[in-house]
Amino acid sequence: MPDKHASYRSRYTADRLIPGAFDGETITRRRFMTGSAHTAGAIAAGAFTLPALAFAVGPIFKSTPHSWVTVGKVGSFPNNNYVPVIATLTPGIGEAGKTTVYMRAFNPALDTDPYDRGTPYIAISTRCAHLGCPVRWVDAAQRFICPCHGGVYDLLGRRVGGPPVRPLDRFYTRVVGEDVQVGPRFSVNSELRRFSPRDPAEPLDGIGQYLYPSRPTERKL
Ligand code: FES
Questions:
Q1: Which residues share a beta bridge with 124?
Q2: What is 63-211's CATH number?
Q3: pTM summary value
């Protein structure tokens, strides 16, 4: 017979007088099966939860490649109208990496916003700030017009009608030798204050800039 007082310290189930215990057993079969079922359940749940989570959260941490591309020569853009250029913003993915950028030279009479000082050229993105459809510059109306839901933007890319939540995004510009280059994209609020790039439908006025922070991997402005 096992010693009754020693059973409290023993690691063997038989010593602890557990019904149905086998000699040499250190864990009951019930506990072992319960632990196995929980472990199998946790592995199964993780197998479909973790990939879905990574798929949803992963893009937040994916950095956007930034490169400078030449889009024309100095003097090839007017300062009172836009010229569309095709720029490869994401190399290596073919046509999908190209976008249309509306370019014009800096105009001190138009570009009075302090954030635009020192910018040699104004480069406007065609991605609508509502849901991302490509907008088109309509010279006769002096407006950018979105064909999807009627978004309208003025000469500076500020929203003047329709559902877009902020002005059109812009690109940094620089002059290298005789080349005009466009670089990283940035977003602006209704005062044309610059922010790190945001996705369409993310407002940047008031509390919007805090509700829709930029991706952690984006360059901070
Ligand atoms: S996507 Fe441009 S107005 Fe909706």
A1: 102, 170
A2: 2.102.10.10
A3: 0.71
